[in-house]
Amino acid sequence: MQFMSLLCLARLFFSNPGFVRDLFITRQLETIDGAKRFAIYAKEDATPIDGGFETPLIDTDKALCTVEIVEPGDEVKPFSVEDWYRYKFCDKCQHVKPPRAHHCIICGECVLRMEHHCPWVGNCIGLLNHKIFWLFLLYSSMGLGGIAVVLLSAAEDKFFITTLGAIAVGLAIFLLFLFQTFNIIKNWSTIETYGLWVNNIFKSHSYGRSWRLIFGANCLTWLLPIESTSPAEGLDYMADIPVLGLMNAKTK
Ligand SMILES: [Zn+2]
Ligand SMILES: [Zn+2]
After folding, report:
1. Per-residue pLDDT tens for 195-214?
2. Rounded CA gap, 252 and 120, in Å?
3. Distance (Å, rounded) from C-alpha 219 to C-alpha 4?
4. What residues have CB less than 8 Å from 118, skipping those under 6 apart?
5. For residue 14, how many C-alpha atoms fall within 13 Å in the half-sphere facing its CB?
6. Average pLDDT of the chain to the nearest whole number
7. Residue 90: which domain range?
8. How far apart are alpha carbons 214 and 117 in whole angstroms?
9. Cα(125) to centroid of ligand 1, in Å?
10. Domain check: are 24 and 114 in the same one?
11. What is the reported pLDDT for 56?
């Protein structure tokens, strides 16, 4: 357990949580009636050239989706669920920001379905590494629980403080693990908890569907600290309300 816990920690430190600029390239298309339109391509489909990337610019069929940055209108209140469930432009990244992505001021990047920035692992937790974070909590609480049991069975007074420490830290991590499990099956992140608690736009999703968004469809990889979710999942989460600005998306 301790080995798996350390492996998850190392993977988290070096993982890409879903940095938008590392995964996608946006190309501005024509502007119609003042609305800016963009095509979003997977970065792996683009050809690196000096100082940038070349995309199949004309061929928007090769884009993952085309989007329009729209002003949401009076019926959408600022900072409401409807407001953040739309495509925006991040002025800091100079890049299109998909719905549920947030700009992390510590990383200086927009992160897909950002969960939170974790100072303990020195990285953001987002769509692509939330699973590894959950596994880290699982293996750490199990490992610390095992250590506490061994120390308790030793029943030596000199281990009393160590045993108490292992129980307290293990319990705190286990509570965080339960909270994260709840977040995952409800299809919301820590920074979305309040907004979606009040107005859950994923009501029609089953717990299984929400789980597979983070863990992938292949149950054989669920307990392994590897990425299972495709970045393209971060462009549209199939909520019960239409995503504002999405014009054309490939069926996944
Ligand atoms: Zn940003
Ligand atoms: Zn961050």
Report:
1. 888 889 999 999 999 999 99
2. 34
3. 18
4. 12, 124, 125, 133
5. 7
6. 87
7. 20-119+235-249
8. 17
9. 15
10. yes
11. 56
For residue 251, give the amino acid letter. Answer: T
| Catalytically annotated residues | 118
Nearest ligand, CA 97: 1
pLDDT for 213-226, tens place per residue?
999 999 999 999 98
DSSP the chain: -HHHHHHHHHHHHH----BHHHHEEEEE---BTTBEEEEEEEGGGSEEETTEEE---S-GGGSSEEEEE----TTS-TTSHHHHSB-EEETTTTEEE-TT-EEETTTTEEETT--EEETTTTEEE-TTTHHHHHHHHHHHHHHHHHHHHHHHHHT-GGGHHHHHHHHHHHHHHHHHHHHHHHHHHHT--GGGHHHHHHS-TTTTS-HHHHHHHHH-S-GGGTTSSS--S-GGGGG----SSPPBTEEEE---
- Co-location of 78 and 198 in the same domain: no
Asked whether residue 139 falls in the same domain as residue 165, the answer is yes
Compute the distance from residue 116 Cα to the ligand 1 centre, in Å: 14
> Around ion ligand 2, which residues have CB less than 5 A away?
104, 106-107, 117, 124
CA–CA gap between residue 39 and residue 27 (Å, rounded): 5
Ligand 2 centre distance from Cα of residue 58 (Å)? 34
Count of domains observed in the chain: 2
pLDDT (tens digit per residue) in 54-81: 655 556 778 899 999 888 777 888 888 8
Six-digit token pair at 191? Answer: 């920074």
